[in-house]
């Protein structure tokens, strides 16, 4: 059976092919941001396959306003008196002293927000049922106003969704794309639930068409296609098209899943995944072999130092792999501000035109240009198919000052920025980064891993096999994952049992349980993983452990379980990672590399390194799509599955 994992990034589209003989092959080509399916089809056209596993950030890109991805007109049907909730939102001001700040444009403009005279009470009792005649009349108005997709969000539908069900059923007679809020966010807080439904409705036509094009191509070749969800599991194309909100962070999630699966094979229980590509760097954590999960994300908004700025985007209540992302990739632009200070990012050269050294028309120096000028990467990428122009990179850097000084300073700045992302998912979650091992991948991750690790007090770094396409490999390692949730369960254990019964249709191999818990009187919850014991006392113990780790204290107060959720996991067969040769005498070259001064560094080809082989820095280990930089004082050893273990 031929499997293909495809990850569409901002700069490159990565492919990992597993053929029927178990051999793994890789491919990396430039992305086509305006028509992302073009690069996917180009890569798939070269191989035979039976299954395609796909991750994409098309949803995020559309809400960020990427050209060629136009968000359709969306209508919103809600309880009378609440049409403006989605525009008022929370009273978060992303820029407190900016008098000209504007909130994100509502996904449903006011003229397309319709009030329905219905009411469900907080305890689930229906005080006033839906009048189907009223809904039909409003549907005709929405249709005449040009609405293509519809979201339905009624008050307290998490307690009883019957009114939403009735309205959504009727609206589906008028519109192809309809989202009821209980279908995507069965939990309290009307603004976040309504926003999730609107984001889903806005993405349904766009993502649906995109997936339909790819699925049509895959099926024409006799294959099947599945999609990576932001929760870290695979879902069917039909499920992804129905709830595209779960694809918002699809690509980055696959990298953390790959890190978690490799961690299981290596017996590493505490891992920080560090994924640095061409446009951004992402950090996540794996604790006890499971990726950390969060339940809220703000899509289409701004971020500062890796922290999402509340109020700048559209809130989404859905399970996501917990990630911090910063504008720090190989294509991140180096520049000077009005005061002459050196800056790195947030703008990126992306795939077009890309870094200056690509020779595709780029004029602004980037992080890749800096690494090339310092001798830290070879003068060829993508397995030798893309030649790099080192002299052009130096000329671009020289516009900002001495090329070597500018390049080395820029790398220090970008490393500090990426260390901040790691702090967000460790220190700010009550985790000590020094107790973790850093697993670095992405095309640029292994170049910066050791210096970022030193900044965080980490003395062990793992470089997985095929780091440049490791996220795509993660899709081949992912399991199917289906989610259900319940708000305010009267009996916690019984509630979990009901959700597991609901998900049993997928014939899961096992379930994962989580609960959103708070002290009574608190305004926000912590998401707590739970085991088989779902008694009140067990939940309270787990919550207080996490509360103490996160905030440094606990209270003598009862807890409240706001939402419980269950993932049904269906295992898939995992590819066998190739082992390195047991013996050999690798060839060694030498080149000048800059580490606080020019030094001679040994250069190795990773494919030639046998098991147990040790390398002392300074050294470079080159391979297709990535280069591992080993500074002085660091040492590398080739371990199981060819994983490079770097120690300080």
UniProtKB/TrEMBL annotation:
Protein name: 5-oxoprolinase (ATP-hydrolyzing)
Domain Hydantoinase A/oxoprolinase: 193-483
Enzyme category, top tier: hydrolase
Lineage: Archaea, Thermoproteota, Thermoprotei, Thermoproteales, Thermoproteaceae
Domain Hydantoinase/oxoprolinase N-terminal: 4-174
GO cellular component terms, semicolon-separated: cytosol
Cited InterPro entries: ACX-like_C, ATPase_NBD, Hydant_A_N, Hydantoinase_A, Oxoprolinase-like
Entry GO MF terms: 5-oxoprolinase (ATP-hydrolyzing) activity
Enzyme Commission identifier(s): 3.5.2.9
Keyword set includes Metal-binding: no
GO terms of biological process kind: glutathione metabolic process
Ranges where the Acetophenone carboxylase-like C-terminal domain occurs: 513-647
Stored Pfam families: Hydant_A_C, Hydant_A_N, Hydantoinase_A
Protein origin, superkingdom: Archaea
Keywords, ordered alphabetically: Hydrolase
